[in-house]
Amino acid sequence: MKKSLLSALIITIALAFAFTTSVSAQGRGRGGGGGGGRGASPGGPPSGVGVDRGLGRSSDASMGRSDKGRDNASTRSGGRSDAGLERARIASDNLRAADNDLRRHPNLASDMHVNANDLRADYRAALAVNPNLKFGQFVAATRLAANLGDRNPNITRAAILNGLANGDSLGRTLRNLGWGKDEANAAVKRVETEIKNSKRRS
Predict the structure, then answer these.
(1) SS3 185
(2) With contact defined as beta carbons under 8 Å apart, do 97 and 135 qualify?
(3) What's the pLDDT tens digit per position in 158-197?
(4) What pLDDT score was predicted for residue 201?
(5) Which of 34, 135, 143, 147 could bridge across to 98 with cysteines, CB 3.0–4.6 Å?
(6) How far is CA 170 from the centre of its chain?
(7) Where are the alpha helices (DSSP H) in the chain?
(8) Total-model pTM
(9) How far apart are CA 125 and CA 57, in angstroms?
């Protein structure tokens, strides 16, 4: 009887110990799984890696667009700015040459019955439209308009300057305004002679 009770007690203790060990193991398993879910599992990526990687790609992509946009805007703006600066430089050089011409040859203005300051101001305004316009061309256009405008109202200095801005010569411009080739060439030669005489007398 005593042996039977002792055997039963040993079996009960063994079962209790086995049950406790099983429950403890299950608890650790759940805890490990939960930790893994929170990013502590050594088999998965470290916590936040996926998010950081996504943000990095987003940032890179955004910076790429931003940089490209700035580069494009800078290039476009820089192109306009460079062209504007070049136009201003050419106009400034031409105006400086006109000042020198007027100082050396004051009769260029007086022979057209205008003062040098007015002629310079008119030339400056013309340069704003066509910075490549030479002072000699401007003087010739002014003289042509004075010589021909009374009998031909369509021949004005503005019309002649428009033709020069389009790349046409003085003779071609006059022909476009209705003059024949011989008449146009003769009118241009007359003006060239007048300008030479004005400079010669200065």
Answers:
(1) helix
(2) yes
(3) 999 999 999 999 999 999 999 999 999 999 999 999 999 9
(4) 86
(5) 135
(6) 35
(7) 2-37, 49-104, 107-110, 116-129, 135-148, 157-165, 170-176, 181-200
(8) 0.61
(9) 55
